[in-house]
From TrEMBL:
Gene3D superfamilies: P-loop containing nucleotide triphosphate hydrolases (3.40.50.300). One of its GO terms (molecular function) is ATP binding. It comes from Sphaerotilus uruguayifluvii. Keywords: ATP-binding, Cell membrane, Membrane, Nucleotide-binding, Transport. It comes from the Bacteria. The lineage of its organism: Bacteria, Pseudomonadati, Pseudomonadota, Betaproteobacteria, Burkholderiales. This is Branched-chain amino acid transport system ATP-binding protein. Residues 20-268 form the ABC transporter domain. The keyword Transport applies. The keyword Transport applies. It holds the Pfam family ABC_tran.
């Protein structure tokens, strides 16, 4: 189950300084404590996983990081800038992109147009010029389309470029969602269950793409995933949440040996 685990340092992968620091985050929805005093950090170039049973607070954590939820307490420092709350656009401009647990694609739009939506954040020309496809806007759009074509090649979805996303099998839709996030050229990529609902082959493909993004683009990855085999295989470090609290943090081996984790998570039928 852990073929590559724990070997990332010896593979010559360079883990850098802390790029994202989560400090004492608490988040409540009325009486529900979704997160209680959560702290952890993410280092540049690492694959950092967040695991835990259903309802543990994993998605809420990502939503705090990318500005969807506003935590009542705590601070998040990203690339040296500390914020209690930032709006989603600011976070994206600073180099953070995410995929969603429930796909957030435009089903009627083609693969290429969906991935283009990830570039919108980077387009400088105003919408009026874009609408006219005039002058600088047209040149800019060409450059963006070229970048999107690279992503399509990288993800091996050339055959479906013009296909409406809603017609693709689920596994490929997840891949397009990854492409949309990659189009933002993120420094840190947040992935919320990118392999959920996939068959074994689709999971293997997704796993390979995540590793390739990490290695080839040097992108730091924060991954929420229920498949323990995958998590233990590809993660450099793992955070474990249970009922909104952090109960474990360390290398896959450390987490696997943690009594609290075994009791709360690994012992269940997840
Ligand atoms: N928008 C919201 N309003 C109210 N409660 C919420 C909201 N979002 C999350 N919660 C609650 O916060 C807790 C944590 O939910 P969250 O979705 O973060 O868990 P999770 O670890 O991602 O679970 P799963 O593995 O099922 O995706 C749950 O009790 C959930 O019901
Ligand atoms: Mg979730």
């Amino acid at each position: 189950m852990n073929g590559m685990n724990g070997t990332s340092d010896t593979q010559g992968k360079k883990i850098g300084d802390v790029i994202l620091d989560v400090s004492n985050i608490s988040l409540r929805f009325g009486g529900v404590k979704a997160l209680t005093d959560i702290s952890f950090n993410v280092r540049e170039h690492e694959i950092r996983s967040i695991i835990g049973p259903n309802g543990a607070g994993k998605s809420s954590m990502l939503n705090c990081i990318n500005g969807v939820y506003v935590p009542q307490e705590g601070r998040i420092t990203f690339r040296g800038q500390t914020f209690g709350h930032m709006n989603r656009r600011q976070v994206a401009e600073m180099g953070l992109a995410r995929t969603f647990q429930n796909l957030a694609l435009f089903k009627g739009m083609s693969v290429i147009d969906n991935i283009m939506t990830g570039r919108n954040m980077k387009m400088r020309s105003n919408l009026f010029l874009q609408a006219l496809r005039w002058g600088p806007a047209e040149r800019e759009e060409c450059a963006h389309r070229e970048h999107v074509e690279h992503i399509i090649d990288f993800l091996e979805i050339q055959a479906f470029r013009k296909t409406p996303v809603g017609r693709l099998p689920y596994g490929l839709q997840k891949r397009v969602d990854l492409g949309r996030a990659l189009a933002m050229e993120p420094k840190v990529l947040l992935l919320d269950e990118p392999m959920a609902g996939m068959n074994v082959e689709e999971k293997q493909d997704m796993c390979r793409f995540i590793l390739d993004v990490n290695e080839e683009f040097g992108t730091t990855i924060v991954l929420i995933e229920h498949d323990m085999g995958v998590v233990m295989d590809i993660s450099d470090r793992v955070v474990v949440l249970d009922y909104g609290k952090k109960i474990g943090d360390g290398t896959p081996d450390e987490v696997r040996g943690n009594e609290d984790v075994i009791r709360a998570y690994l012992g269940t039928s997840h």
